[in-house]
Write the structure tokens for this entry.
Amino acid sequence: MSGVLITFEGVEGSGKTTQMRRLGRWLRAKGRRVEWTREPDGTRLGVAVRRLFEHPGVRPEPLVEVFLFMAARHQHVAEKVRPWLERGRVVLCDRYADATVAYQGYGRGVDPNLIRELNVRATGGVLPDLTLLFDLDPVEGLRRIRGRRRDRFEREALAFHRRVRRGYLEIRRAEPKRVRLVRAAAPPDVVAAEVRAIVEEFLRGA
Ligand code: TMP
């Protein structure tokens, strides 16, 4: 496959979505062929999965959460990510395989190794070439999203978000070459410049 997959991860309110769009516009202006997408709702099936989480009375077991995100991921890779990569696109994805390790693994207590195995199956081996981890204290992240309508995960207690952050940092420790840390507490323009520098350097070597 000739394209590259760049994923954006981090705790709630870390600004990754805004920064991904900013980077996408910048790369396009530089003549790159860019696609952007998100999980779980990058496909119609994924949108249905996200809605299911919000359905009254639906309380999935932690492992069921894993299966639902994996189902959405497999469909997403088949419908969008793999075809784009085969066409040589730079694919920017707002959350991907690491999110399940961080949220369901570290957050909910599902075995992270099981999640890693399922990720390989669900993605058919389409794993990120580069991951930008927007690291932020969850206290600040949750403060930033105050007033927004919150989903099932955003409503979780602070302790959950702290475990998620720790999970992301563990993932980075294990794969420092793929996972690059972005200090998300900095002003948005500073974050954007850091993101561009990391991605530019990566694409030069890709
Ligand atoms: P967001 O990216 O718009 O914040 O929404 C995605 C939510 O779903 C977020 O709260 C994290 C959660 N999530 C998981 O718990 N596991 C996953 O594998 C993915 C992709 C998302």
Observations:
- DSSP finds eight helices and five strands in the chain.
- Residues 38 and 136 are 20 Å apart (CA to CA).
